[in-house]
Amino acid sequence: MQGTRRGVSVHYLPAILLLVHALCGSVDGKREIPIGAIFHQVPDHSYESEIAFRYAVERVNMHEKHFELVPIVRYVSPEDSFRTERKVCELAAEGVTAVFGPSSLLTAGIVGSICKTLEIPHIITHWDPEPLGGIEAELRAMTINLYPEADVLSRALADLIVDYSWKSFTIIYDSDEGLMRLKDILQIHGPADAPITVRQIDDDPDYRPLLKDIQSSGESHIILEIRPDRILELLRQAKEVKMLEEYQSYIITSLDAHTIDFEELRYSRSNITALRLMDTKSFDIKNAVHDWEQGEARMKRPFRVSPEHVHTESALYNDAVKIYATAIRELDATEEITPARLSCGSKNLRQWPFGLRIVNYMKVKTEHGITGPIIFDDFGRRAHFHLDIIELSKDEGFKKIATWDPTHGVNYTRSQGEVYSQIVESLQNKTFIVASRIGAPFLMFKEKKDGEFLEGNNRFEGYSLELIDGISKILGFQYRMELVPDGKYGSYNKVTKKWDGLVKYLLDRKADLAVCDLTITYERRTAVDFTMPFMTLGISILYAKPVQQPKDLFSFLSPLSLDVWIYMATAYLGVSVLLFVLSRMAPADWENPHPCKQDNDEVENIWDMCNALWLTMGSIMGQGCDILPKAISTRLVAGMWWFFALIMLSSYTANLAAFLTMERMDATIESAEDLAKQSKIKYGVVMGGSTMAFFQTSNFSTYQRMWASMESARPSVFTKSNDEGRDRVIKGKRMYAFLMESTSLEYITERYCDLTQIGGLLDSKGYGIAMPVNSPYRTAISGAVLKMQEEGKLYQLKTRWWKEMRGGGQCTEVPNSSQENELGIGNVGGVFVVLALGCFCAFLIGILEFLWNVRKVAVEEKVTPWDALKAELKFALNIAVTSKPVHNTLSESTASGKSSLRSKSESRRGSELAGRGNSVRTAASLTNLDKSGFAFDKH
């Protein structure tokens, strides 16, 4: 990086130049303004800093017309405060107008104190912490520091950590001074956040024990606050102990990290990030480096350094000379700046009159140098600056990925496309270890054929395997499936403070990915990262289907119990008898059969037992009757019966359809609320799963009540797997329900037709592919999942493994919701049976009435029953005849016989006329409820 010193030592060059100027004077007419600089013999890059200082002065002198800066350099040890004090006094005696350096906190403090006393500007370029008691403006009145202010630089590191979403990290430091630089980082974590581990290294060059301790703790984020000469060796040893893998990330706080040669670590898989104060591709730094190399070449001292490896202190010395020369130029234009030789030990202490004015001007002056914008606060600290955030890459070494400034924070300069392309490129030919667990349909052991030997990924089949296989084809990586030993998804034990299952497997770095029906939860997200969900779902209830009851022809009787039917029959008979008795007792119900004959001596009562029964029957059927009672008592009885009949008929009609529908279904529960309200049916979940965590942490009263019921149930209602829960539901005979994720429930109900889903989803969540925190591959894998979703491949996979493979599609018949409420003939067939029986009985009664009439005619007409039967049957079958004569001549008898028969017929007709009105009225009473009154004979 830099050459060796040859020829005249650079240490003596400024003194020689000053001697020449003193002897020869200013031949070009420029006034000489001496400036002093104090350097340490160590570190090695102090030589580069001195070169930067010297050639910055040379460049200023090339452009200035009125003055010339004369550098006077002194060298001291970083710990030698006595010699430092003496060297500063020597510089003051030589009339220097400013002192640059040194870079040690101890020696710089002494220089600053003397400069403050003599009012000589003191310009430093190193980190300077704020005193514990705060800054005293008077003590810092003459000091200007070009190094980034300590608090602002610490805030830049804190912003970077927050932007990287580091929840926990370990700080490795080598000095108390370094730990002080990170105070803002130590303050960004609250009491509830993960703890920050702080580890100090000593002079022992073996860092492996420390790194192994960090590895065993599971920490993957490390901040290195150590000297630049230690960084490479520490990372080299980290690589040896497998601490430089893709899941470890390092932030190097030193602003000189870019000067280290990371060639041997360039192809490591860790993310190594550092900060840089300068833009190494800027014209200013390239121009400065060119000056350095050309100047040293003239002096026969080979010197080589690339702009990418310039030390921060060297760049700051260049900028310090530039801004000081600007201040001299601006102030000299109004008043000539003249140096003065000052003495440290003089009794009559004299101060340089221009010093304070120069410092105050520099504080308000804004400049731009190699290290970017230079702005000071009232205490002379550089409060505003820009930082480059750089990242170690395989092809370019350190590459700029973002910038930081106090106003805007972190601002990335690379596009998301560039990041994605870089990640995809790193995946090529990489082999991922993919952890999973056995559970249909996500991962199952493949069924072997006779003589077939399966190994590796060929041992398995299922949705998870085909999902990761599709992702691997998109991104171009290889994979190896492994089963997690305990077969668990991953839950956190608050007692042991450890994870189990797939999450633990990832935390132990035994796998790169975890693929199965692993639910994305907040708790798991604190331990591992997830891709975007490849499947959405929710919690639902697995329950046995209702047992279909045998069909009953007399289901229409179900709305009323047997007792009610008996009571109704009793009431029917009782009310009919009561109506018959009261009507015979009430005078109003005895009426004149011939209202037109007012002198009729006889009255009749139409309310015989048959009419009373018919009235009550018409009322209960909702049809009523043409005749009505006249007395108040009988009307009251009829009215109360009609009210009773109306209520019973309405209740029966309203509940008939519901009862006939429900008789086919023995449904006990329909939702989670139904489960929570009862205690007869037990219910449970998988122990340690996300469903259990949902009920355990829910704030909803129903779910809290369900969790309390599950937790207190004996025997335990929890299961080890979904398969065990399924078997419990089958064997439970509708006395056990299982709460599980809807995707697994859907898979089961496609194969077990006697099981069904009850209710809707209790929540909404998703399955994701898990990986270690801050995995660099999360974005790429999420992109592949999204691509498969957009192409419909995820839907095809689910259809294949849910409805086609391993017995799927057996229960695809989906009942029509409208048909579910339809009543079949098996439910209401009893109504038709009753109708048929009634019609049959009516037919038998009609035949009996016909035969009775035939017998009566045969007797009256003095003919044989057979002749009377034939005559009446012939008349009944002749549908064209609409009227029937009272008397029919059935034989060819003698005239006397006929006359005798006719006389008898007339005699019979006369007797019939007397009772015809009553018969007609009785017949009319059986027709219509809305018509009341009597029908009379009108002969």
Number of strands: 31
Q: Mind telling me the CATH class of the largest domain? A: Alpha Beta
Mean pLDDT: 81
Span between termini: 145 Å
Weakly predicted, low-confidence segments:
1-27, 663-667, 816-823, 891-939
- Count of helix runs: 30
Radius of gyration in whole Å, from Cα? 54 Å
Tell me the CATH superfamily of the largest domain.
Answer: Response regulator
Strand order of the largest sheet: 2-1-3-4-5-13-12-11
What is the name of the CATH topology of the largest domain? Rossmann fold
Largest sheet: 8 strands, mixed
Beta-strand content bin: 5-15%
Silhouette = elongated
CATH architecture of the largest domain, please? 3-Layer(aba) Sandwich
Family: Belongs to the glutamate-gated ion channel (TC 1.A.10.1) family.
Binding site for L-glutamate: 519, 524, 690-691, 741
Main location: membrane
Site (Interaction with the cone snail toxin Con-ikot-ikot): 787
Provide a compact summary of the structure.
This protein is of the alpha/beta class and 939 residues long.
Structural notes for this entry:
The structure is a single chain. The chain has 939 residues and is α/β, with parallel strands linked by helices. The protein has 5 domains: 31-147 and 315-382, Rossmann fold, CATH 3.40.50.2300; 149-300 and 386-415, Rossmann fold (3-Layer(aba) Sandwich), CATH 3.40.50; 417-537 and 767-804, D-Maltodextrin-Binding Protein, domain 2 (3-Layer(aba) Sandwich), CATH 3.40.190.10; 544-548 and 665-758, D-Maltodextrin-Binding Protein, domain 2, CATH 3.40.190; 562-592 and 604-661, Helix Hairpins. The strands form 8 sheets. The protein has an 8-stranded mixed beta sheet, sandwiched between helices. Strands 7-6-8-9-10-14-15-16 form an 8-stranded mixed beta sheet. It has a 4-stranded mixed beta sheet with strand order 27-28-26-29. Helix 14 crosses helix 25 (778-790), helix 17 crosses helix 18 (609-620) and helix 28 (825-861) crosses helix 29 (865-877). The longest helix is centred in the C-terminal third of the chain and has 37 residues, at 825-861. Residues 1-27, 663-667, 816-823 and 891-939 have low confidence and may be disordered.
